[in-house]
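Note to self: the last two entries modelled the partners one at a time, which told us nothing about the interface. This time every component goes in together.
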Amino acid sequence: MPVLPPLRKPTLILRCALLAVSGLVCATTVLALGTHQVPVAPPKLPPKAPPTLVPRTVSELCAQMVRRLPNLSSAVCARAQLVQGAVASNSIKGTPIFQRDVISDNAHLRVLVIGGIHGDELSSTALVLNWIGAAMETPSNIHWRFVPLMNPDGMLQDKPTRTNARGVDLNRNFPTPNWDKEAPNYWRQRTKNDPRRYPGPQPLSEPESRWLHDQMAQWKPNLIVSVHAPYGVLDFDGPTVAPQRLGRLYLDQVGIFPGSLGNYGGVHKKVPVVTIELPSAIRTPQEAEIRQMWLDLLRWTAERLGAN
Ligand SMILES: [Zn+2]
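The predicted structure of the combined assembly is written out below.
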């Protein structure tokens, strides 16, 4: 039997590492020889993607919107200073429906501007957030109420959806006359049961559409502007002369649907509803176009509502 030379401590440490012997055995041996213990590093796992949190505060909502929405800076979102209004409500998952009022001293007309009622129309929310800044720079006799994201659950999913968290198209859930018959029939026969256009089990079955309905009943807006995408036109329902264009968008009235906001507000409640269809759901218009649309909207409100 050859006599092995006594092991020196550094050699033992090296061998342990090379042979990948259990850290426990090595450490025990090394310790027995009176040396320092080599810490056993925990295995390196790939970093886990954090689960998508349901935003409950404005800063959480802004963080998620800035990450997802096209051309939206955190400065624009922070400047919007969203808050929960007096008519507080949450989405199905629990995100507050945030709003921002911009009021000049002599404001007496009320205009409600809604974005993101369809969660996969990302540019609509970005536009409304930009318009909050524009309203702050444009004194008028209008009390503006901006609601950039009516359907947070739909927009903030990994894959944004048109419908809310219960699969309801909020823009088919308003209580138009004969909804019980017309909305389900339209869905079955005209959309062939398209899940993206499911009107819900009954009118106002969803907290988001109930919230908007309550806003209309209590705050009584003189005008509602609802921003959508991606058809690149203007639509209008209501008792006054429609705007002919906003920026590059021209009037093209596409008809009414059972349960839609335009039908409920404009036709049934006689509150003018301007429906803006931006040309892309995933690209926000350029700054100059956002500004031009805003100026055209102001001009039309002055002509038709007496705004200044
Ligand atoms: Zn839409």
